[in-house]
Each structure stands twice: as C-alpha cells, then as structure tokens.
Request: fold
Amino acid sequence: MGALDSLSEYISDYFHVSRKRKKRKVKQTVNIKVKMDCDGCERRVKNAVSSMKGVETVELNRKIHKVTVSGYVEPKKVLKRVERTGKKAEMWPYVPYNVVAYPYAVGAYDKKAPAGYVRKSEHSQPVPGAPDDVIMSLFSDENPNACTVM
Reply:
C-alpha cells in the first residue's frame, strides 16, 4: 500500500484535493486494578471489556485483582468501561519489586500490594547524583579509585 499512498499524495498535490486523515491508534497494553470477588464479577468485567472495538486480548487475574487488556484501545476508555460495570477500578498502581531502587521508601511500600510488587512512587526512584550514591560509590569494589584502607 506504500506505493499507492505515495501516488495518491502526488496526485492530490496537483489537484489540491484534501482529505482528513484518521488518527491511527497505537497498539498498547492497559493494566487496571479491579476488585473482583467471584466468577460473576470476573465474567461481567471480561464481557464489558472484550466487547470494545480494538480489543485483542483480555486477561484477568482475580487473585491480584488485575485486568490486562491489549489492542488498539485508549486507557481512559477501558477504565471508563470497567467502571460502568459497577466495580471500583483504577489504573494499575504497582511495579515489580526488583525494578524499584528503594522499595521500603515512604509511599512505595504497600501492605495491600500483591506479592512481588510495590506501589509506584517518586520517593522510590533514585535521584541522580544524590550524596548517598556518591558516598556509596567511594567504597565500591567496582570503583578503581575506591578507598584501599578497607
């Protein structure tokens, strides 16, 4: 289709025919936290989301209250559709434990988080050039200029 598109653009330049181009949606994966207690809740959420235009796959994990939707969808629209089922829903607020530099920082550690996850937080991310990182690198085995007294 690339040759036909370029040919149509070439011809439209001469004839000044203008068409509105549709904005293409990007394929993406949306993770949502939804409180699901039973099979009925799970089925209701899955049917609501899978009937949306552009949805390719819907995965539900009732144990950690997570719904993963992938396809050509917008995250806000998926969230609104899940909320219309009557369930409390929010965008997935957790990241894997091993990705965060300070998992026990204020705001990052959450008792309600699923196993292996902590809450996204600005405090859990390291600040580049922070004084504690500089001090720790002074005594590192990987630093060739480290203190040799140890």
Summary: The beta strands are 28-34, 55-61, 66-71, 89-91, 94-96, 117-119.
